[in-house]
Design a protein that fits this description.
two-stranded antiparallel sheet, two-stranded antiparallel ribbon, 6 strands, about 70% helix, mainly alpha
Length: about 350
């Protein structure tokens, strides 16, 4: 019952806060121009930004009501608050990419200091891979911190990677919010399963899902408000930490967000090859290719929802080796899909050119 109450409360609070934030953004004239490379639609609508603050506010309010405070939770909330604020400032004033990355690493360091990190990784062929080699303790300001270089580096890469993965995903109306909600629901299902049995993780996941879903009706096409970097950064950080919390089931969240992670890696590689910043915006993500191939925004988003749901279900029903096989299959599907969409888009552009 507590899960249902927390879910409904977070959903309602997020919806109310979204209305409030939208009105304030309009009053302050904080708009996103949708025809930009970051834009969600191929038109010139002016949509208010900062919707991510509603997701953040709902999650924090309900979490503080239902979840007992601990060092780990405090670290999650502090790191999440930092990125929500940095993202909001970036939405309004635009922060340099290197500065944004520095804050993301700082937020990852905060949660590591709070005791949230990846120490072991399940070996799909059996057993676990221990990442705690070279561990040592440091006393600082009356607290003892355990430093594990390999594990800490892996954790930071995972957290920062997830933050930017969700940010890259935020390219069509309702896409990032909906896929994040699906991911949170999968983590919830995983956390309440007998093999994991993490009730606090389940509670945090269902609160995050409710917060994202409360915002989604205002963000689905045609969007009345965008979450902006404040929402994408916060969702990415929280999903990354919940995956660690839920017994380190990184492969599970990796499958749910697999198409997004592969798309993000592909985006970084192509930008580096062009000698541009891997964080620079463009219109060559998977969701943009679907639009270029002729799909409507709604159909493209619903197709990607379906992809996340299917692989999320596969992840919940699979063991470690089966998840590895599923990841390989997902990779093959993504490579084939991206290559096909690029060819379709080029043919469509060629056919649309006047003779």
């Amino acid at each position: 019952m507590v899960y249902l109450i927390a879910f409904l409360l977070s959903l309602v609070i997020a919806a109310v806060l979204t209305v409030i934030v939208r009105k304030q953004a309009i009053t302050l004239r904080i708009f996103a121009q949708t025809s930009s490379t970051k834009g969600h639609a191929l038109d010139d609508r002016k949509i208010p930004y900062l919707g991510g603050l509603a997701i953040y506010g709902s999650f924090v309010a309900v979490t503080l009501t239902f979840v007992p405070m601990s060092r780990q939770l405090a670290a999650l909330l502090i790191g999440g608050t930092l990125l929500a604020v940095v993202g909001a400032v970036d939405d309004v004033r635009h922060i340099n990419a290197k500065v944004r990355l520095a804050f993301q690493v700082l937020a990852a360091g905060i949660v590591l200091a709070g005791g949230i990190g990846i120490v072991t990784v399940t070996n799909p062929f059996g057993g676990v891979i221990d990442l705690s080699y070279g561990r040592f303790a440091v006393d600082l300001l009356g607290f003892q911190f355990h430093i594990t270089p390999i594990a800490n580096l892996f954790s930071i890469l995972w957290i920062v990677g997830m933050v930017n993965t969700i940010n890259f995903l935020d390219g069509l109306d309702g896409l990032a919010g909906g896929v994040s909600a699906i991911s949170a629901l999968v983590i919830f299902a995983l956390a309440i399963s007998p093999g994991v049995n993490q009730p606090l993780v389940a509670l945090l996941a269902i609160i995050l899902a409710g917060s994202a879903l409360g915002f989604l009706p205002f963000n689905f096409f045609p969007a009345k408000i965008f979450m902006g970097d404040s929402g994408a950064y916060f969702l990415g950080l929280t999903l990354a930490l919940l995956a660690i919390y839920s017994g380190g089931k990184l492969a599970t969240i990796g499958l749910v967000l697999g198409f997004t992670i592969i798309d993000a890696i592909w985006a970084a590689v192509r930008r580096i090859r062009r000698r541009t910043s891997p964080f620079a915006a463009d219109r060559e993500h998977l969701h943009h290719l679907l639009i270029n191939a002729g799909l409507s925004q709604r159909r493209a988003v619903l197709l990607l929802y379906l992809l996340a749901i299917v692989f999320g279900g596969v992840a919940l029903m699979s063991q470690s080796f089966s998840k590895l096989v599923a990841l390989i299959i997902l990779f093959a599907i993504m490579v084939t899909l991206i290559a096909s969409l690029i060819r379709i888009g080029r043919r469509k552009q060629a056919s649309d050119k006047p003779l």
